Amino acid sequence: MHRAINPRSGLVFAIHELGRHAGGFKPVQGEVPAPEGMGNDVIGVPAGSPVRLDLRFEAVVEGILVTGVAGLQLAGECARCLSPISGEQEIEVQELFLFPDKEPEDVEASRVEGDSVDLEPVLRDAAVLELPFIPLCRVDCAGLCPRCGADLNADPSHAHEATVDPRWADLADWTSTTED
């Protein structure tokens, strides 16, 4: 699916000074605001949070090769106890943006559009793949009590009286009233 480049996005970079000849390069370092939708329902990159970029744009025969790292801030909730969690994630970026006249074998290949490349889809895909599948506040998180929802991290000795299976409840009363 093709989407139009937003020239005002902090993740769209002009590459006209690199030209179409192999060998040119341009370092890109700085911070840009994170776009919306980088993550899932449990954890992700907050929209507007700073994305630290340390990238290198290189002109190659087929197009523009972008390599480097992006530092992201994460926010979400623990999958076990639902407490808020935050942290930082560094993701590796390596993407070849093909010039428009190059025919890729892969129709999903990234493309140079005009004199610009858009890193948003690349960063979004890389970030989602690097996010923890089951984010935890800590490795040994005890979670919530399945009966009452109490946080077992705050009260590790939390317990309930043993319950009798409702199918056997009548027999439990019968055994306590009968003699051997």
Overview of the molecule:
- It contains two helices and eight strands; from the N terminus they run ββββββββαα.
- The chain is mainly beta.
- A hairpin with a 3-residue loop joins strand 3 (about 40) and strand 4 (about 45).
- The protein is elongated.
- The termini are far apart.
Layout of secondary structure:
Elements: E1 12-14, E2 25-33, E3 38-39, E4 43-45, E5 50-59, E6 63-77, E7 84-98, E8 116-118, H1 120-130, H2 169-177
First-residue to last-residue Cα separation: 77 Å
In total, the number of strands is 8
Identify low-pLDDT runs.
none
- Main sheet makeup: 6 strands, antiparallel
The gross shape turns out to be: elongated
The string of secondary-structure elements, in order, is: EEEEEEEEHH
Number of helices: 2
Residue share in helix: 10-25%
Q: Quaternary arrangement of the chains shown?
A: single chain
Strand content: 25-35%
- Which whole number gives the mean pLDDT? 84
* Structural class estimated from helices and strands: mainly beta
Q: What are its keywords?
A:
180 residues; six-stranded antiparallel β-sheet; two-stranded antiparallel sheet; 2 helices; 8 strands; 11% helix; elongated
What's the short story on this structure?
With 180 residues, the chain is mostly beta strands. It has helices at 120-130, 169-177; strands spanning 12-14, 25-33, 38-39, 43-45, 50-59, 63-77, 84-98, 116-118.
